[in-house]
Amino acid sequence: MASLSEHPTVQAFQARQQYEHPPAAVDRNWLRTLCLELGADDVGFVEIERSELESERPHILAAFPHTRTLISLVRRMNRENIRTPARSVANVEFHHTNHDLEEVARKIVAALEQRNIRAICPAVGFPQEMDRYPGRIWVVAHKPIAVAAGMGQMGIHRNVIHPRFGNFILLDTILMEATLDDYSQPIDYNPCLECKLCVAACPVGAIGSDGHFNFSACMTHNYHEFMGGFNDWVEKVADSKNAVEYREKVTPSESASMWQSLSFKANYKAAYCMAVCPAGEDVIGPFLENRKTYLQDVVKPLQNKEEPIYVTPGSDAEEYVKRRFPHKTIRHVHNGLRTPSIARFLGGLPLVFQREKATEMDVTYHFTFTGQEKRTTTIIIRHKTLQIQDGLKGEADLVIKVDSATWLKILDKKQNIILAILQRKLQLKGSPQLLRAFERCFAA
Fold first, then answer.
1. Containing H/E element for 382?
2. Could you tell me if 272 and 136 lie in one domain?
3. Which residues touch 13 (CB under 8 Å, ≥6 apart)?
4. Strand runs (DSSP E) across 48-89, as ranges?
5. Residues spanned by the domain of 269
6. Of 314, 332, 350, which residue is a domain's last?
7. Do both 226 and 274 map to the same domain?
8. Which of 49, 160, 312, 415 could serve as 409's disulfide partner, Cβ 3.0–4.6 Å?
9. For residues 78-93, b (16+ Cβ closer than 10 Å) or e, as one string?
């Protein structure tokens, strides 16, 4: 075998100019200009050591171990396209802006590569790492990075609000190996007006006026044709004996909507919180000029729209729709948040907690999981709040000892709970009614 130095590729490389090592530190002004010229509407920079990114750092470094700087990119959307009750128009705007922003990120990464600076650009939204579903499927959490980079602050609707463009933006993040000579800092105020229009417009009550956010309600409806909702639809297809039974479970418009999402990209069902938000210097004018007209033109059409609302049975969202939007049609679905392990079960409880079901509760549960996943946990449900602690703390109102595999089967409706008790795989010390109360607080 010839020596490496005799290989044509090596000889061609050596015949060219000497390899240029990446710069020790990149000029921030140069990089900002590059990003804006290539199509970003705004951009900020965060060093990997920033304290605000402590929880994100392991995930960032797992995706690109050479990361030293995070570039937060902003691309604004056309506001009226998002505001219209015609969701097809809104979804086209989401998808086109998504595509545009990813093209911008790719061009920036290519320009950096030409300077021998390594970088990667994870997706704005999808595709994501579905082998990890239903856990953390995203590579990078764009929102906390955008906040750290001075691109805005989080509103009560959990969208980042840019000081100029409002929440009518999409975000992307580039992971870059080089450092900068200077970095961005968060803005020193929150553009959120706390007007609560997002609270009023949300069809499932996911946004509380006190700042509470019901994750499962939002995901179950708005993302109905993504992930969990798609799984629910597939299971309805599989469980149907024939076309007649399928049509009893799924309406023709729902079948057509799922086909549309599969053919053209998955469609959001609402995003009304974003549609009605008046925050941002470029956005706030009509709201300040005449709030009554703003409500009539922007908020009321979304509230008054007759449409299906997807909820899990017995959830806070179901009760909210019945009370607040009786003209909208409730459709029962499974949210798709399966629990493949005890760790995932415990980690997912805050996401599916139905606090309105816990208004009158003050109960402490001791869980002892045996078998494959041994673990002890204390769960306290007290007056619309949830606490989860490792170990058995305090005095329990209900003690639950259960084989871990059996518990996961119970959650997945594969194991009858009464049979599990008779077989001593599930043991209770305390009132069984408290287990019923526990179940009601986590409607799935």
1. strand 375-382
2. no
3. 19
4. 69-76
5. 197-332
6. 332
7. yes
8. 415
9. ebebbbbeebeebbbb
Mean pLDDT across the chain, nearest whole number? 94
Strand bridging mode 25-26 / 179-180: parallel
As a dihedral over the C-alpha atoms of residue 60, residue 214, residue 302, residue 82, rounded to 10 degrees, the angle is 0
Domain co-membership, 324 together with 407: no
Domain boundary residue, one of 276, 307, 332: 332
Q: Could you tell me if 350 and 326 lie in one domain?
A: no
Considering its fold, how many domains does the chain have in total? Answer: 3
| Rounded Cα gap, residues 353 and 366, in angstroms | 18
Strand 153-154 to strand 160-161: parallel, antiparallel, or no bridges (unpaired)? antiparallel
Its pTM stands at 0.91
If phi > 0 it is left, if psi is from -120 to 50 it is alpha, else beta; for residue 194 that is: left
- Rounded-to-integer distance, Cα 243 and Cα 169, Å: 42
> What single DSSP character describes residue 299?
I
- Partners of 365 in beta bridges: 379, 398
pLDDT (tens digit per residue) in 322-333 = 999 999 999 999
The pLDDT tens digits for 116-168 are 999 999 999 999 999 888 888 899 999 999 999 999 999 999 999 999 999 99
